[in-house]
Amino acid sequence: FETMMAFGSNCAVDDIVEVMKSNDLCDRLGMDTISCGDTIAAYLMAEDEFGNVDLIHELVEQIGYREGIGDLLAEGTHRAHEELGVHDWTVKGMDFPAHDGRHLHGQGLSFATANRGADHMYAVFYSQEYPLVGKDDAYPPEGFEGKPKRLIEKENQMALNDSGIVCKFSRDFMTPERYEMLFGADFEDLLAVGDRIVTLERHFNNQRGFDRGDDTLP
Q1: What is the Cα–Cα distance from 164 to 181, expressed in whole angstroms?
Q2: Is residue 81 part of a domain?
Q3: What whole-number distance in Å separates Cα of residue 130 and Cα of residue 133?
């Protein structure tokens, strides 16, 4: 569905077969469909070419081989936006996925503050606002009550997942008890490891010029 957003609605393409072709081209060229589709959408806006599927497929290949305008677009929206004359629709240089932070306020907060930028998998917080958890446990999409604390917990947990090679789509299957069985350590101690990872990432970003002012949405 991320590809349907990036090469479908973002590019004003309503033919699923054409979206599948864009996906296939990206797969063959080893490119991420979210960033590629979002960058192409920025170009289509600049050129008033929304919905032009032949151009979209041509641009995918030009990006893959860095030919023609593809050499610029291969740099992504953040680096190409000024020359294209469009807005920089990224956070810390990363293009947005399909989850809309204007409605999912906790996910929007995650996009703004994540060390990687607009990465929906950094804390997977959308899963807390969609009915992907029990209805009694889910947060209402809009509003922030209780969400910042939970977001920090999810960031730490996902950092633990990344370092421990635990699939993030395990979602709530990975209970504290299962983490403890897997790693042989107390769950709170494991979350503290995740917290140190997130903090080190933050220090890395700070040393390279990022600061609190970059924790914002476009």
Answers
A1: 13
A2: yes
A3: 7
pLDDT at residue number 138: 84
Q: Within the chain, where are the H helices? A: 2-3, 16-29, 33-47, 53-65, 70-73, 77-84, 105-113, 126-129, 147-164, 176-183, 187-207
Query: What secondary structure does DSSP assign to 122-168, as a single string?
Result: TT-THHHHTTTS-TTTPPPSS--TTHHHHHHHHHHHHHHHHHHT--G
| CATH code where residue 35 lies | 1.10.569.10
- CATH number of the CATH domain containing 196: 1.10.599.10
pLDDT, mean of residues 49-55: 98
Name the 3-class secondary structure at 23: helix
Q: Is the per-residue pLDDT at 136 higher than 80?
A: no
Residues 139 and 80 in one domain: no
With 0-12 / 13-18 / 19 or more C-beta atoms within 10 angstroms meaning exposed / middle / buried, residue 122 is buried
Domain count, the chain: 2
CB distance 63 to 70 below 8 Å? yes
Radius of gyration for the chain, computed over Cα atoms and rounded to the nearest angstrom: 19
Q: Is residue 13 part of a domain?
A: yes
Q: What 3-state DSSP class applies to 41?
A: helix
